Amino acid sequence: VFWEGQIEENWSQWSLQSGRFHEAQTGAVECWEELRSKAQSLLQAQLCDASVHKVLVEVACTLALLGAWANFHNLRGDGHVLLEFRELLQSIQVCLDTHFPAYKASEGRGALTEQLLKNESWQLMQVPAESPGRDAWWHPAEWQVPGPATPSD
Predict the structure, then answer these.
(1) Choice between 57 and 5, residue whose per-residue pLDDT is larger
(2) What are the C-alpha distances in Å from 10 to residues 1, 2, 18, 22, 50?
(3) pLDDT reported for residue 4
(4) DSSP codes of every residue in the chain
């Protein structure tokens, strides 16, 4: 009898919270789809000016932070969205390496690493300087550094 009373008393509150959760989830999915679409459009356009560089670094930093956050909280889900984050981060890194050479720390991938390491959320999660392992695609220590271009035979 006690639990029946509790369920009846709290049912509307639980329903309201459930509805809010689903609305937030739908909003997050819509935001991710829009971010991914716009970032891919920028990558395909191959524009190489300072404003594009800044946007790509910001998006890549956000993806790395989301990966670190998911790892920190042991969130895996079905892995589909994290895989999409990883693929977009890698595409942006290739673009930064290709179109914004790292001859200055403020350009190319160096800008991404620099911004990430200064980020307060990154610091609050106490991400180790070395890779924490467990498929840490989001960690700078795990990012493949491009080798020198080799002439094709």
Answers:
(1) 57
(2) 14, 12, 12, 18, 54
(3) 76
(4) -HHHHHHHHHHHHHHHHHHHHHHHHHHHHHHHHHHHHHHHHHHHHT--SHHHHHHHHHHHHHHHHHHHHHHHTT--TTSHHHHHHHHHHHHHHHHHHHHS-SSSTTSHHHHHHHHHHH-HHHHHTT--SS---SS-TTSGGGSPPPPPP----
The sign one gets for the Cα dihedral 66, 70, 71, 72 is: positive
Amino acid code (one letter) for 111: A
Lookup: tokens for 38: 């716009």
Instruction: Say whether pLDDT at 86 is over 90.
Output: yes
**18 CB-side CA count, 13 A:** 6
pLDDT tens string 109-151: 788 888 998 999 988 877 776 766 667 888 888 887 665 544 4
Contact yes or no for 61/112 (Cβ under 8 A): yes
Residue type, 147: G
